[in-house]
């Protein structure tokens, strides 16, 4: 009875359905390149930095403690000296920054 011409025009619009998804695809692509990809790159760099920590490096923990690494343990822990004679155990992944790196010792052979 009250059929409008809009219902008749909507049938058979397969190409129109695809074009309505194009803005969503573009938004996802922009979000990927502006947010997701840089975050993954930053995470990868942090992981490499934490794996390269060795004895003698001066580090900053995520809690804000600054100290020198005195011992590197195998189970993901580091022993960090934060003052003379004061040593704390911290997890590797809590290191937020390496302030100064030490040079590896020369091997005499």
TrEMBL record:
Role this protein plays: The SecYEG-SecDF-YajC-YidC holo-translocon (HTL) protein secretase/insertase is a supercomplex required for protein secretion, insertion of proteins into membranes, and assembly of membrane protein complexes. While the SecYEG complex is essential for assembly of a number of proteins and complexes, the SecDF-YajC-YidC subcomplex facilitates these functions.
Sequence intervals crossing the membrane: 6-35
UniProt-listed SMART domains: YajC (SM01323)
PANTHER family for this protein: SEC TRANSLOCON ACCESSORY COMPLEX SUBUNIT YAJC (PTHR33909:SF1)
Membrane topology: Single-pass membrane protein
Subunit structure of this chain's protein: Part of the SecDF-YidC-YajC translocase complex. The SecDF-YidC-YajC translocase forms a supercomplex with SecYEG, called the holo-translocon (HTL).
Localization of this protein: Cell membrane
UniProt key word tRNA processing: no
Matches recorded under InterPro entries: Preprotein_translocase_YajC
Protein name according to UniProt: Sec translocon accessory complex subunit YajC
Organism (species): Halodurantibacterium flavum
Protein family according to the UniProt entry: Belongs to the YajC family.
Coiled-coil regions listed: none
Keywords associated with the record: Cell membrane, Membrane, Protein transport, Translocation, Transmembrane, Transmembrane helix, Transport
Any one Pfam family match given in the protein's UniProt record, by short name: YajC
Superkingdom per UniProt: Bacteria
